[in-house]
Amino acid sequence: MHRTEIAAPYSREAVKTRSPACAALAIALLPGAVRAEVAAPAFEVNARDLVRRVVRSQRREEAAFDGTTFDQREVKIEWGSDGRPREIASRLFYVLSGNGGEEGSRELVEVDGRPATDAEKRKAAEEDEKGRKKRLEEKAAREARRAEKVSGDEDDPLVGRRRLSELISRFVIRVVGEEVVEGRPAYVLDFAPDPAAPAPESLGDRALNALAGRALIDAVDFQVRSVVAHLTKPVKVAGGLAASVKQAEISYTGQPLGEDLWFPCVVELRLTGRKALFFRLDTSFRFEFANLKRFRVDTESDVRPTGTPGSAP
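Request: output the structure for the sequence above.
Response:
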Protein backbone atom coordinates (compact mmCIF):
# COMPACT_ATOMS: atom_id res chain seq x y z
CA MET A 1 0.00 0.00 0.00
CA HIS A 2 1.27 3.43 -0.79
CA ARG A 3 -0.14 6.91 -0.49
CA THR A 4 0.09 9.32 -3.40
CA GLU A 5 -0.10 13.02 -2.75
CA ILE A 6 -2.03 15.02 -5.30
CA ALA A 7 -0.18 18.24 -5.96
CA ALA A 8 -1.43 21.34 -4.15
CA PRO A 9 -3.14 23.89 -6.40
CA TYR A 10 -1.55 26.90 -4.72
CA SER A 11 2.00 27.84 -3.87
CA ARG A 12 2.92 28.94 -0.36
CA GLU A 13 3.97 32.35 -1.67
CA ALA A 14 0.40 33.03 -2.81
CA VAL A 15 -0.69 33.20 0.79
CA LYS A 16 1.83 35.46 2.54
CA THR A 17 -0.76 38.05 3.60
CA ARG A 18 -4.07 36.82 4.85
CA SER A 19 -6.17 35.68 7.58
CA PRO A 20 -12.92 31.78 11.16
CA ALA A 21 -15.41 32.45 9.85
CA CYS A 22 -17.56 31.58 7.25
CA ALA A 23 -20.03 31.23 4.97
CA ALA A 24 -19.79 32.89 2.94
CA LEU A 25 -20.30 35.53 0.58
CA ALA A 26 -18.83 38.59 -3.74
CA ILE A 27 -18.59 40.45 -6.87
CA ALA A 28 -15.49 39.69 -8.79
CA LEU A 29 -12.61 40.38 -6.46
CA LEU A 30 -10.75 37.55 -8.16
CA PRO A 31 -7.23 38.47 -9.17
CA GLY A 32 -6.82 38.33 -12.91
CA ALA A 33 -10.52 37.83 -13.47
CA VAL A 34 -11.82 38.79 -16.86
CA ARG A 35 -14.50 41.37 -16.17
CA ALA A 36 -17.34 42.14 -18.55
CA GLU A 37 -20.46 44.22 -18.46
CA VAL A 38 -23.39 42.42 -16.89
CA ALA A 39 -25.52 41.16 -19.76
CA ALA A 40 -29.16 40.17 -19.52
CA PRO A 41 -29.61 36.39 -19.35
CA ALA A 42 -30.07 34.75 -22.75
CA PHE A 43 -33.09 32.97 -21.30
CA GLU A 44 -35.10 33.25 -18.12
CA VAL A 45 -33.50 31.56 -15.11
CA ASN A 46 -35.55 30.70 -12.03
CA ALA A 47 -33.50 32.12 -9.13
CA ARG A 48 -34.80 29.73 -6.48
CA ASP A 49 -34.22 26.70 -8.69
CA LEU A 50 -30.69 27.98 -9.33
CA VAL A 51 -29.99 28.22 -5.59
CA ARG A 52 -31.29 24.66 -5.06
CA ARG A 53 -29.04 23.39 -7.83
CA VAL A 54 -26.02 25.15 -6.31
CA VAL A 55 -26.69 23.55 -2.90
CA ARG A 56 -27.07 20.09 -4.47
CA SER A 57 -23.86 20.57 -6.42
CA GLN A 58 -21.94 21.58 -3.31
CA ARG A 59 -23.36 18.66 -1.33
CA ARG A 60 -22.16 16.19 -3.98
CA GLU A 61 -18.58 17.38 -3.85
CA GLU A 62 -18.25 17.69 -0.07
CA ALA A 63 -17.15 14.07 0.25
CA ALA A 64 -14.25 14.79 -2.10
CA PHE A 65 -12.64 16.93 0.60
CA ASP A 66 -12.79 14.34 3.39
CA GLY A 67 -9.37 14.01 4.97
CA THR A 68 -7.79 16.88 3.01
CA THR A 69 -5.24 19.24 4.50
CA PHE A 70 -4.82 22.94 3.83
CA ASP A 71 -3.39 26.17 5.25
CA GLN A 72 -5.67 28.70 6.93
CA ARG A 73 -4.29 32.14 7.70
CA GLU A 74 -6.31 34.49 9.90
CA VAL A 75 -5.59 38.22 10.01
CA LYS A 76 -7.47 40.39 12.52
CA ILE A 77 -7.19 44.19 12.28
CA GLU A 78 -8.43 46.67 14.87
CA TRP A 79 -8.96 50.02 13.14
CA GLY A 80 -8.36 53.38 14.82
CA SER A 81 -10.67 56.39 14.64
CA ASP A 82 -8.25 57.92 12.11
CA GLY A 83 -8.94 55.07 9.67
CA ARG A 84 -5.51 53.50 10.14
CA PRO A 85 -4.78 50.00 11.48
CA ARG A 86 -4.22 50.23 15.24
CA GLU A 87 -3.46 46.57 15.88
CA ILE A 88 -2.77 43.68 13.48
CA ALA A 89 -2.60 40.03 14.50
CA SER A 90 -1.89 37.14 12.14
CA ARG A 91 -2.03 33.39 12.75
CA LEU A 92 -1.35 30.46 10.41
CA PHE A 93 -2.96 27.06 10.99
CA TYR A 94 -2.45 23.68 9.35
CA VAL A 95 -5.93 22.18 9.01
CA LEU A 96 -7.06 18.56 8.65
CA SER A 97 -10.67 18.39 7.47
CA GLY A 98 -13.07 15.88 9.01
CA ASN A 99 -14.78 12.94 7.35
CA GLY A 100 -18.48 12.55 6.67
CA GLY A 101 -19.41 16.05 7.81
CA GLU A 102 -17.54 15.75 11.13
CA GLU A 103 -15.46 18.62 12.42
CA GLY A 104 -11.79 18.52 11.56
CA SER A 105 -8.81 19.71 13.55
CA ARG A 106 -6.12 22.31 13.16
CA GLU A 107 -2.70 23.14 14.56
CA LEU A 108 -1.31 26.63 15.10
CA VAL A 109 2.11 26.90 13.46
CA GLU A 110 2.80 30.61 13.06
CA VAL A 111 1.98 33.87 14.89
CA ASP A 112 2.74 37.25 13.36
CA GLY A 113 5.27 35.76 10.96
CA ARG A 114 7.25 33.74 13.53
CA PRO A 115 6.92 30.11 14.71
CA ALA A 116 4.21 29.67 17.33
CA THR A 117 5.41 28.91 20.86
CA ASP A 118 4.24 25.83 22.76
CA ALA A 119 2.14 28.07 25.03
CA GLU A 120 0.46 29.70 22.03
CA LYS A 121 -0.25 26.30 20.49
CA ARG A 122 -1.83 25.05 23.73
CA LYS A 123 -3.97 28.18 24.07
CA ALA A 124 -5.20 27.94 20.47
CA ALA A 125 -6.01 24.24 20.91
CA GLU A 126 -7.94 24.99 24.12
CA GLU A 127 -9.90 27.76 22.40
CA ASP A 128 -10.76 25.45 19.49
CA GLU A 129 -11.87 22.69 21.87
CA LYS A 130 -13.99 25.13 23.87
CA GLY A 131 -15.61 26.35 20.66
CA ARG A 132 -16.24 22.79 19.47
CA LYS A 133 -17.92 21.83 22.75
CA LYS A 134 -20.06 24.98 22.67
CA ARG A 135 -21.24 24.19 19.14
CA LEU A 136 -22.11 20.63 20.14
CA GLU A 137 -24.01 21.84 23.23
CA GLU A 138 -25.94 24.41 21.20
CA LYS A 139 -26.80 21.78 18.61
CA ALA A 140 -28.04 19.37 21.31
CA ALA A 141 -30.09 22.15 22.94
CA ARG A 142 -31.72 23.07 19.64
CA GLU A 143 -32.63 19.47 18.94
CA ALA A 144 -34.02 19.04 22.48
CA ARG A 145 -36.27 22.12 22.07
CA ARG A 146 -37.47 20.97 18.70
CA ALA A 147 -40.71 19.01 18.93
CA GLU A 148 -40.04 17.35 15.64
CA LYS A 149 -36.59 16.60 14.33
CA VAL A 150 -35.85 18.55 11.17
CA SER A 151 -34.39 16.50 8.39
CA GLY A 152 -33.59 17.31 4.81
CA ASP A 153 -33.92 15.56 1.50
CA GLU A 154 -32.60 16.00 -2.02
CA ASP A 155 -35.22 18.60 -2.90
CA ASP A 156 -35.08 20.50 0.40
CA PRO A 157 -31.74 19.76 2.12
CA LEU A 158 -30.54 21.12 5.43
CA VAL A 159 -28.17 24.08 5.31
CA GLY A 160 -26.75 24.23 8.81
CA ARG A 161 -29.78 23.71 11.03
CA ARG A 162 -32.31 25.17 8.59
CA ARG A 163 -34.08 23.74 5.60
CA LEU A 164 -33.01 25.35 2.35
CA SER A 165 -36.62 26.42 1.70
CA GLU A 166 -36.64 28.33 5.00
CA LEU A 167 -33.46 30.19 4.11
CA ILE A 168 -34.70 31.06 0.64
CA SER A 169 -37.99 32.35 2.05
CA ARG A 170 -36.13 35.11 3.90
CA PHE A 171 -34.87 36.71 0.69
CA VAL A 172 -36.02 38.27 -2.53
CA ILE A 173 -33.72 36.62 -5.07
CA ARG A 174 -33.27 37.63 -8.71
CA VAL A 175 -30.99 36.51 -11.53
CA VAL A 176 -30.08 39.88 -13.03
CA GLY A 177 -27.59 38.92 -15.73
CA GLU A 178 -24.65 36.90 -16.93
CA GLU A 179 -20.90 37.48 -16.98
CA VAL A 180 -17.82 35.72 -18.26
CA VAL A 181 -15.12 35.31 -15.61
CA GLU A 182 -11.79 33.72 -16.54
CA GLY A 183 -13.40 32.33 -19.65
CA ARG A 184 -16.29 30.71 -17.75
CA PRO A 185 -19.94 31.83 -17.87
CA ALA A 186 -21.51 32.90 -14.59
CA TYR A 187 -24.96 33.95 -13.42
CA VAL A 188 -25.26 37.22 -11.51
CA LEU A 189 -27.68 36.77 -8.62
CA ASP A 190 -28.91 39.60 -6.37
CA PHE A 191 -30.54 38.97 -3.00
CA ALA A 192 -32.20 41.25 -0.44
CA PRO A 193 -34.29 40.79 2.71
CA ASP A 194 -37.90 39.84 2.05
CA PRO A 195 -40.25 42.19 3.97
CA ALA A 196 -42.57 39.19 4.42
CA ALA A 197 -39.81 37.02 5.96
CA PRO A 198 -40.65 35.12 9.18
CA ALA A 199 -40.00 37.02 12.41
CA PRO A 200 -36.47 36.42 13.71
CA GLU A 201 -36.09 34.00 16.63
CA SER A 202 -32.33 34.25 17.10
CA LEU A 203 -29.32 36.43 16.42
CA GLY A 204 -28.67 34.43 13.25
CA ASP A 205 -32.21 35.10 12.06
CA ARG A 206 -31.83 38.83 12.70
CA ALA A 207 -28.61 38.90 10.71
CA LEU A 208 -30.18 36.96 7.81
CA ASN A 209 -33.17 39.31 7.78
CA ALA A 210 -30.82 42.24 7.29
CA LEU A 211 -28.47 40.77 4.66
CA ALA A 212 -28.34 41.89 1.03
CA GLY A 213 -25.80 41.48 -1.72
CA ARG A 214 -24.74 39.89 -4.98
CA ALA A 215 -23.41 36.43 -5.85
CA LEU A 216 -21.64 35.11 -8.92
CA ILE A 217 -22.62 31.49 -9.68
CA ASP A 218 -20.49 29.44 -12.07
CA ALA A 219 -22.84 28.28 -14.83
CA VAL A 220 -20.84 25.11 -15.58
CA ASP A 221 -20.27 23.56 -12.14
CA PHE A 222 -23.02 25.51 -10.29
CA GLN A 223 -20.59 26.55 -7.58
CA VAL A 224 -20.35 29.92 -5.81
CA ARG A 225 -17.53 31.86 -7.41
CA SER A 226 -17.93 34.99 -5.33
CA VAL A 227 -20.30 36.82 -3.00
CA VAL A 228 -20.37 40.28 -1.52
CA ALA A 229 -22.97 41.22 1.09
CA HIS A 230 -23.79 43.90 3.65
CA LEU A 231 -26.24 44.64 6.42
CA THR A 232 -29.22 46.78 5.46
CA LYS A 233 -29.89 47.73 9.09
CA PRO A 234 -28.08 47.45 12.45
CA VAL A 235 -28.06 44.14 14.31
CA LYS A 236 -27.97 44.15 18.12
CA VAL A 237 -26.43 41.44 20.28
CA ALA A 238 -28.14 40.93 23.67
CA GLY A 239 -30.37 43.90 23.03
CA GLY A 240 -27.35 46.07 22.32
CA LEU A 241 -25.72 45.43 25.71
CA ALA A 242 -23.04 43.13 24.28
CA ALA A 243 -22.70 44.81 20.91
CA SER A 244 -24.54 46.79 18.28
CA VAL A 245 -23.29 46.17 14.75
CA LYS A 246 -24.21 49.17 12.63
CA GLN A 247 -22.42 48.05 9.49
CA ALA A 248 -21.04 44.75 8.27
CA GLU A 249 -19.45 43.88 4.96
CA ILE A 250 -18.77 40.28 3.98
CA SER A 251 -17.01 38.95 0.89
CA TYR A 252 -16.19 35.44 -0.28
CA THR A 253 -14.10 34.26 -3.22
CA GLY A 254 -13.91 30.69 -4.52
CA GLN A 255 -11.63 29.17 -7.13
CA PRO A 256 -12.01 26.13 -9.43
CA LEU A 257 -9.35 23.47 -8.93
CA GLY A 258 -10.24 21.22 -11.83
CA GLU A 259 -12.11 17.91 -11.73
CA ASP A 260 -15.30 19.91 -10.95
CA LEU A 261 -13.87 20.86 -7.55
CA TRP A 262 -13.93 24.34 -6.00
CA PHE A 263 -12.08 25.68 -2.96
CA PRO A 264 -12.54 28.94 -1.01
CA CYS A 265 -9.65 31.37 -1.44
CA VAL A 266 -10.53 34.36 0.72
CA VAL A 267 -13.27 35.30 3.18
CA GLU A 268 -13.32 38.87 4.50
CA LEU A 269 -15.51 40.45 7.18
CA ARG A 270 -15.56 43.98 8.60
CA LEU A 271 -17.76 45.05 11.52
CA THR A 272 -18.36 48.57 12.77
CA GLY A 273 -20.54 49.80 15.62
CA ARG A 274 -20.37 49.65 19.42
CA LYS A 275 -19.55 46.95 21.96
CA ALA A 276 -20.51 46.91 25.63
CA LEU A 277 -22.52 50.10 25.06
CA PHE A 278 -19.64 52.58 25.11
CA PHE A 279 -16.68 51.06 23.28
CA ARG A 280 -16.04 51.65 19.62
CA LEU A 281 -16.15 48.61 17.33
CA ASP A 282 -14.23 48.64 14.05
CA THR A 283 -12.67 45.26 13.37
CA SER A 284 -11.91 43.36 10.20
CA PHE A 285 -11.07 39.69 9.67
CA ARG A 286 -9.44 38.09 6.67
CA PHE A 287 -9.27 34.32 6.20
CA GLU A 288 -7.16 32.88 3.41
CA PHE A 289 -7.09 29.24 2.40
CA ALA A 290 -4.30 27.69 0.36
CA ASN A 291 -2.09 24.64 -0.24
CA LEU A 292 -4.98 22.20 -0.42
CA LYS A 293 -3.68 18.64 -0.52
CA ARG A 294 -5.75 15.57 -1.18
CA PHE A 295 -4.48 12.07 -0.57
CA ARG A 296 -5.53 8.81 -2.11
CA VAL A 297 -4.59 5.31 -1.00
CA ASP A 298 -3.67 2.80 -3.67
CA THR A 299 -3.68 -0.91 -2.83
CA GLU A 300 -2.31 -3.80 -4.78
CA SER A 301 -3.14 -7.46 -4.07
CA ASP A 302 -2.68 -10.82 -5.73
CA VAL A 303 -5.91 -12.78 -5.67
CA ARG A 304 -4.76 -15.70 -7.81
CA PRO A 305 -5.12 -19.09 -6.11
CA THR A 306 -1.84 -20.70 -5.18
CA GLY A 307 -0.60 -23.53 -7.32
CA THR A 308 -2.64 -22.61 -10.38
CA PRO A 309 -0.91 -24.14 -13.43
CA GLY A 310 0.64 -21.58 -15.67
CA SER A 311 0.58 -18.78 -13.11
CA ALA A 312 3.66 -16.76 -12.44
CA PRO A 313 5.50 -17.64 -9.24
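The chain is about 20% helix and 40% strand.
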